[in-house]
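Protein 1 of 2
SEQ + STRUCT:
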Amino acid sequence: MLQAKNYQRTYTKALVLLGSNVTFELEDSAKLVRDALNCLSERGLRITSISPYYSTACFPAGAGPDFINVAAQLWVDESAADLLTMLHQVEDAFGRERPSRWAQRSLDIDLIAYGGCVSPDRDTFLHWMNLPLERQMKEAPDQLILPHPRLQDRGFALIPLADVAPDWRHPVLGKTIKEMAEALSEGQKSEVSLFEMG
């Protein structure tokens, strides 16, 4: 008689940031992000926490309409690579195109962190974290870099993430999301404001 083996799943806390600047009507972008969150759930991803909706200035300045940004915490048993594939599939389902870096987009879903993982290795992570802005605008990694190498610099990511995972600690910098958000300049903080859906 065959006995079923009991395989125990290993779950990891993943942090994602969703954004849209599909039109100058922020309400349209907010509805699209809301629909994308529903799509993630429908595809079996367990969302444990969602931040409020934020309006954030487009980066770099003048590149398009302002963004709606929302952070979400997931509890996943997929690998980081498989999770990223799922996120890209949802982007594609919402008509995401990638004509150029920082181009206007209908939907952007970034995998910000996957537990305490540093991927693919510490040296590669440090290379992309320390890349000067002028090179960032011309170069993009051809592999998944975790955590997101510019997380510590970006108010539009840190402020929503502080709502869902304030105590998550950066595995290289050693700082929590709350600490990194508090260290932002007043100018950076002022570029991110709560958005109330109508």
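Protein 2 of 2
SEQ + STRUCT:
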Amino acid sequence: MFGTVDTYRKVIALTGPLLPFLSFFARLPVAMSQFGSVLLVAQTSGSLATAGIVGGTLSAGQVVCGPLLGRLADRHGQRPVVLAAAAVNALATGALVAGALGGLDTVPLAAIGAVTGASIPLIGPLARTRSVALAHRAGADESVLGAVHSLEGTLDEVSFVFGPALVGLAVLVAHPAVALAGAAVLVVAFGSAYALHPTAAVTAGSPAPARAAKGRRPRRPRHPRIVHAVRGSLALQGAMFGACQAGIASLTDRLGVPGQAGIVYAAMGVASAAVGLGLGALPARIGLRLRWRVATAAALVLSAPLLFTGSLWSLYAVVTVLGAAYAPHLITAFALTERAVASERLAESMAFAASSLVAGQALALAVCGRLAEEHGPAGAFAVAVGAAALCLALALLSRVPAARTHPAGAAAVTAAPRESYAGR
């Protein structure tokens, strides 16, 4: 216990206490935008189909443009990219609210939704990149790097619990438009504060590679196969999220308590966050390959009871326990990405990993909603179990390098002079 606290103290000493606070609130708009946009459009248009289309284009924009924002951050630094993205996203979110309230047609609303998703500053992946750069610059050992990933994963999980909860609260006391307006305020205030924090100096960017004599740029470093395997695993994890959402919504509706769906899903997120934070206590000698295999095996074993769940309390129990397998997989996947990619492509790779998760979730939601209608909750939950089985197969069949594929944070270490952020 004391060793874990001491490890996290080392992480906070690297980042300063303010950076995790800022990055947490800057992540909330990501969790609020899609849910809030669906509720807003559904209420103003009276059409769930229109709401689904707008929510889908918002997700598509994030999936397609997230890695591009990461690449721009690698090239030009996080500060200008996040500041620009936060400004565009706030304007696009405001336009979406105004368009929905004004009765705009589906196609223009969907277009605005796509811009809103495309401009979401992916603070989670960028914060991981910045914290890792700080750790490498300080010469931190693998236990501290593991704690960095655990802390960032926990902040992600908590944001995806509180984000929809804030939307639900705003809808309860006011209107979905208030929730999206709040997301716009958060992205401007905390996204900008995150971008302007002094630690941004360690992610100042790398210049574009010079052209060779024949006018060709040198090839960018290629990713090893493990990076693509991890992206596939994260897409399958997203599919588990989407399938669980659809199955939970279907079962709670069948039981006559549809309002419990969000609370059940939140319970899974709370359990995941708690276990993720505790993952920092694992010693570095328990390698990433073993962690990946154990986490995916646990997800398969713990998701199987979903197929036989028929009451509200059993659903709470199964889903809460299942949440304990999610954070270890996500944290390990991002840690594997950080270990395998070159530092000058880290932000792009982290964003691509996050986009894989979103893509899997969006696709599963679209498919599992229909399955739940035709075959009941078990139809959706079967997809979650199948995705878990494929995750385990990837973990068992993929070759995980025993050491780092690239030098640890070479670009990040030289990006800025050493400085203490403990008081910031």
